[in-house]
Amino acid sequence: MALAFDEYGRPFIILKEQDQKTRLRGIEAQKANISAGKAVARILRTSLGPKGMDKMLQSPDGDVTITNDGATILEQMDVDNQIAKLMVELSRSQDYEIGDGTTGVVVMAGALLEQAEHLLERGIHPIRIAEGYEMASRIDVEHLEHIAQKFDFAPTNIEPLVQTCMTTLSSKMQVVNRCKRPLAEISVKAVLSVADLERKDVNLDLIKVEGKLGGKLEDTELIYGITVDKDMSHPQMPKQIQDAKIAILTCPFEPPKPKTKHKVDIDTVEKFQTLRQQEQKYFDDMVQKCKWFFSGGGVGGRYWYTPLQFWGRQLVLILMFVQDVGATLVICQWGFDDEANHLLMHRNLPAVRWVGGVELELIAIATGGRIVPRFQELTPEKLGRAGLVREKSFGTTKDKMLYIEHCANSRAVTIFIRGGNKMMIEETKRSIHDALCVARNLIRNNSIVYGGGSAEISCSIAVEAAADKHPGYAIRAFADALDSVPMALAENSGLQPIETLSAVKSQQIKENNPHFGIDCNDVGTNDMREQNVFETLIGKQQQILLATQVVKMILKIDDVISPSDF
Amino acid sequence: MAIERILKDDASEEKGERARMASFVGAIAITDLVKTTLGPKGMDKILQSTGRGQEVTVTNDGATILKSLHIDNPAAKVLIDISKVQDDEVGDGTTSVVVLAGELLREAEKLVAAKIHPMTIISGYRIAAECARNALLQRVVDNKENAEKFKSDLMKIAKTTLSSKILSQDKEHFAQLAVDAVMRLKGSTNLEAIQIIKKPGGSLKDSFLDEGFILDKKIGLGQPKRIENAKILVANTAMDTDKVKIYGARVRVDSMSKVAEIEGAEKEKMREKVQKIIAHGINCFVNRQLIYNFPEELFADAGVLAIEHADFDGIERLALVTGGEIASTFDNPESVKLGHCKLIEEIMIGEDKLIHFSGVEMGQACTIVLRGASHHMLDEAERSLHDALCVLSQTVNDTRVVLGGGWPEMVMAKAVDELARQTPGKKSHAIEAFSRSLVAIPTIIADNAGLDSADLVAQLRAEHHKEGCNAGIDVISGSVGDMAELGISESFKVKQAVLLSATEAAEMILRVDEIITCAPRKREDRM
């Protein structure tokens, strides 16, 4: 472990607590890293493609997840190794950027690492390999652009988009598979309703995916608005409000607490009674004063803080005021007591209480309302508007949700997933997320390449051809790595991997047609254009670039210092 | 060089064959556990909770058993989940779905051992499930048009469902009860309107269905015990002391006499409140919160029936059925909606007095009062009745009915078997296995009844090769009988859900080729 010695043979201590650390250097370090990266890729390899197997993951708390979504598997795997974590990051960044192809990118990186290992054994310097990979990936990306095709769709004709989403959903769990058509339609409609077709941009933040236990998967629906997991504060308030004007309050419907501390001591009956009389009298005054105050004059918050107000009366006033402003629905961050609740009901002013801060903001943004911290600051302009607010209850359970639809300001939509158990809902959420991303990518950039490994095979041929012109082994190795994706696809579909791959490859070269891929579903043709299997161009390009980048990074590590077992 | 460990220390990873083995073993263990509760002669299980009190539950409801188990095996958890889904969606068939999924996996295990790829098995199962469903669809009976017949269908279904439960002794009685209750709902699946009250004592036979609403509360002292044409004010307000709702106000006194004076003033305040309430012109006042003796007395003086401390569910339901609103302020008597009912009276069930509201506005509401020897029995009776009510309300919506007693399984098995013979390729093995799993259900029913299952099932199979046969297992006489004559029916919706979810669960487990178990979360050590 010693690194250097002085003239007396004593070691220089360079690292802190040097003898407690393990250290791997040079080729050893690279090999260790590569094997860790490969181990991660190996886990995901069997999940690739429509016939990929699922993984069952048990979380630290004992919850079970069954999925074949690469990003989810890696996220929940609780990985400890640093290099393995890099692979997890890789999959995650593909997820963030594109949202699909999270398994493919890891399998690709694993294959590149495997090829790099062979090259290292032959004594090729890691930097040379990295350079070769870089060059090859550039060729690859160019080639992809070359074989890409334009994909036509219009907001009126969503069928092609639905087809694409169905391709994405088909590799997911069977429960999702069963109603992939409605789910695909929901996803496409959701994306289209928030899409800005002029700028070709889609803000996926506007699509909220919510899940709730109970019901069937078929009950999943698209809501043009937002949902809040709350119900009307009083069971007998109206369940449906047309053209709602919403007051969004963060002040409690509770007695106002004066900022200055004071006490009202009641020590005689007279005082008790005068207090009550004062309350009464005060109320009458208040009505006058408040009317004046609300009608525009008045300076004063002070009326609101006078300690002798009789709360119940004041409440009536507040409510009158709130209604005067024009609100037809009150959404309150805090609670209100039974009295207030009844008054609200009585005055036919529906209210929702205990709405969380985040939801409150969301409602405010969507309805174009302002969050009002004090009653007296409420003005008609500050009210939010929504076309329809309704409360919906579900099945035999008592659950209720509030739907706020057709909001004024925003086109935000919510996909509301129902399902029998949490596992199913989570898996559906993940699948919908993938489908949404695919639809978004198509709107952003409607170039596509064909799937089923056909793009990889075509690239592999192109890179191989380029390798003849450029020196170095690494480019050729890259071509071999590209082959591994279709190979894994064939393997998972129960086909002979090498045989199938070479057959497809020769077919592609012979007919000079990049649309031949692996026939995973046993349809009988391997022309992916006929099978309608395609992926987005940017997704594919991103996969190649990200995988190459991570592999380059791993290859450049030549020293691993870690604390030995603790 | 050693392969790097990529997972955390305590995490484990099982791959390929081993993973599959682990899930098969887990799933089959769960199946064997609930298997003996299947069918009319199924046995019960005692469940003892680990919590304080170590409460004991006796049940043969699959979902209840599985919910109470603490399972570590992930595949077993999938089966438990499936059972829960079945419970949520159709309410019955919770055991059947687990048993069928388990049998499918048992067959799959053999196929995997015979070197058939799981994906092939899955596609075989999918085809078979579709075929089985179609076969069943062809034989369904739909009596939607004929109200009389449909009602007798409902009775049959209720009896069949109840016959495997604790209520089997009095199934005739309870089936009638359940059917009546569900018919009152007029097609809605909102089981909330059916209230179930459990009162120990008496025998199960003494249970009855009551039209109206029963509140498990007592009437205050000295107040009328019977009110006709009641006007009810349902409220949620403090009737103990009306607090001064001003921040910082407090009472400070320096002598006893002053305390008395203030008390007097408070009383005065309360008296006014009561007056206001009475001014609504009511003769029944139901409050969610406590009513202290003083106001109670005032109410009694005014001849108003005051009921205190009705719990939240009770009050909401009462407001719902009587058509009143829950009030908290009483300043505007003219605009508060009062609830109405024809008659309020105090009734005795066993030794307890209850308040009975009859002739309520919402005609759908009804109450089932369950009587029984012990709490365990009542709990189990409630679960059974709940199953029956669920099934019936589902059947009202989807009126298709099939026969019971192993008949549907045999019909499906026959169709699937024929399909297997026509299907080329390796899939046919899986399809054949599917049919074997279906036959396992009548086999288990017969086994549980202590009958010679091999003989009976063989007879049944022979019978089913005739066209349009109605044969099933008659557990009571221990032979093959005509299910249509015996009046054993099941809801098509339940059967279909069992078939589809069991296939889904089996498929989900078969698709897994790797199990990764994370390190269990460490408990914080208290030092």
Helix and strand topology:
The complex is a heterodimer of chains A (566) and B (527).
Chain A: E1 21-25, H1 26-45, E2 54-58, E3 64-67, H2 70-76, H3 82-97, H4 102-121, H5 126-147, E4 149-150, H6 159-170, H7 174-178, H8 180-194, E5 195-196, E6 201-202, E7 207-213, E8 221-223, E9 225-228, E10 240-249, E11 264-266, H9 269-294, H10 302-305, H11 311-325, E12 329-332, H12 338-346, E13 351-352, H13 357-367, E14 371-372, E15 384-393, E16 400-407, E17 413-419, H14 422-444, E18 447-450, H15 454-469, H16 474-492, H17 497-511, H18 528-531, E19 534-536, H19 537-555, E20 559-563
Parallel strand pairs in A: 7-17, 10-12, 10-14, 12-13
Antiparallel strand pairs in A: 1-20, 2-3, 4-18, 5-6, 8-17, 9-16, 10-15, 15-16, 18-19
Chain B: E1 12-15, H1 16-35, E2 45-48, E3 56-59, H2 62-68, H3 74-89, H4 94-113, H5 118-138, E4 141-142, H6 147-163, H7 171-185, E5 194-200, E6 208-211, E7 213-215, E8 226-235, E9 249-251, H8 256-278, E10 284-287, H9 293-301, E11 305-307, H10 312-322, E12 326-327, E13 339-349, E14 352-360, E15 366-372, H11 375-397, E16 400-403, H12 407-422, H13 427-448, H14 453-464, E17 471-474, E18 479-482, H15 483-486, E19 489-491, H16 492-510, E20 512-517
Parallel strand pairs in B: 5-15, 8-10, 8-12, 10-11
Antiparallel strand pairs in B: 1-20, 2-3, 4-16, 6-15, 7-14, 8-13, 13-14, 16-19, 17-18
Helix pairs in contact in B: 1-3, 1-4, 2-3, 3-4, 3-16, 4-13, 4-16, 5-12, 5-13, 5-16, 6-7, 6-11, 7-11, 8-9, 12-13, 13-14
